[in-house]
Amino acid sequence: MSMVISIITFFVIFGVLVISHEGGHFLIGRANNIRVREFTVGLGPQIFHRIRNGTVFSIRLLPFGGACMFDGMPGMEEGDEEEDRLPQASALVNEIEDPKELSAQGIAFNEAPVWSKIATIFAGPLFNILLAYLIAIIITAVTPWNYAVIRGFTENSAAQATDLAEGDLIVRMNGARIRQSAEVTMLSQFNRGEDITLVVERDGTRREVTFTPSYSEEEGRYYMGIYLGEAGEISGAQVLPYAWYTVQYYITTTYRSLWLLVTGRLGADALAGPVGMVQMVDETYEVSRDLGPGVVVLHMLELLVILSVNLGVMNLLPIPALDGGRLLFLLVEVVRGKPIPPEKEGYVHLAGIVALLILMVFILFNDIRRMIG
């Protein structure tokens, strides 16, 4: 039963992520008078649609992904009626509206000013970050904040040998501003034996301490040997910046993890697809369900923040077919003063789509192996 609840919850979370991302493209595109051919949630056969102002709003059978399809976007060009690359969407529009009236709904993507196109593409990841921030505001307002206060030390640890003391508040670590204990943990986990410099505050006075973390053969990583955490309430206007600190933390964690993955310091097992995300939802539900519905909802909201930030950051990578890849072509257009030929850009994005599909298959098998293993 819990797995059924987790699957339903996953679909809800995934739907919110897709609508937020594609909704960003849609709203900013329409604000720039760019014509949208279809706005769809899901993939595969269409099971529901409505047409508004020349745009097909549809729900498709497979609840994975979605799209905001602009007329004239490389790879989605408006060809002749017989060669239209979006025949289903075109047929749905044409059965209700006169095609001549479509021009009144805006201009094609490739006809828009370059900065309008940049704003439209960038809006998808941006709206994911904004969604994460709005949810983080709710979480920050109703849950305690975990300050980076030293509560103790592990026996014979590197930190214990310094003049750090219980009650010290860590305010900086290797130059990075610290606002919560999770940031210290994250920076410690990414440490590979480099010296750690902490700036701590004690009785209103700040002091700097530098030491080398200890290596654990058992865990295969370096440890400072510090227990952290002191709960405190965040209220009033302070909620706004502290909510952003949470989003900022997840952004940093995402790009640091990506760097470790690219450099081979993080294995492929760290990647997760839909199956892995369902498992993540299920584990979160199992941990929190005995604490009551309110705690379950909060934990799911926290998971939504993490996934929304991940989706936003990942889509900004300069990879063909992703928003970052399209932005790269548009920035080249800004420098050149003219766009790259659409057919050439289309081929590049097609290659990117094929590569992403191969990666998705690999991740799917990886998720299944991890689940049954």
Summarize the structure.
The protein has helices spanning 2-31, 87-94, 114-142, 181-189, 239-262, 274-288, 293-315, 323-336, 342-372, and strands at 36-52, 55-70, 145-153, 169-173, 176-177, 196-202, 205-211, 214-216, 221-223, 226-232. It is α+β, with helices and mostly antiparallel strands.
Would you give an account of this structure?
- This protein is α+β, with helices and mostly antiparallel strands and 373 residues long.
- Among the domains are: 1-12 and 129-140 and 234-373, no CATH class; 145-232, Pdz3 Domain (Roll).
- Helix content is 49%, strand content 20%.
- It contains 9 helices and 10 strands.
- It has helices spanning 2-31, 87-94, 114-142, 181-189, 239-262, 274-288, 293-315, 323-336, 342-372, and strands at residues 36-52, 55-70, 145-153, 169-173, 176-177, 196-202, 205-211, 214-216, 221-223, 226-232.
- α3 packs across α5 (239-262).
- Residues 77-97 have low confidence and may be disordered.
- Rg over CA atoms, rounded to whole Å, is 24 Å
Measured by DSSP, the beta-strand proportion falls in: 15-25%
Q: Can you list the strand order of the major beta sheet?
A: 5-4-6-7
H/E series: HEEHHEEEHEEEEEHHHHH
Weakly predicted, low-confidence segments:
77-97
Number of helices: 9
What is the mean predicted local confidence, pLDDT?
Answer: 83
Count of β-strands: 10
Level of helix content?
40-55%
Q: What is the distance, rounded to the nearest whole angstrom, between the alpha carbons of the first and last residues?
A: 21 Å
Briefly note the structural class of the backbone: alpha+beta
Overall geometry comes to: globular
Largest sheet: number of strands, sense, barrel closure: 4 strands, antiparallel
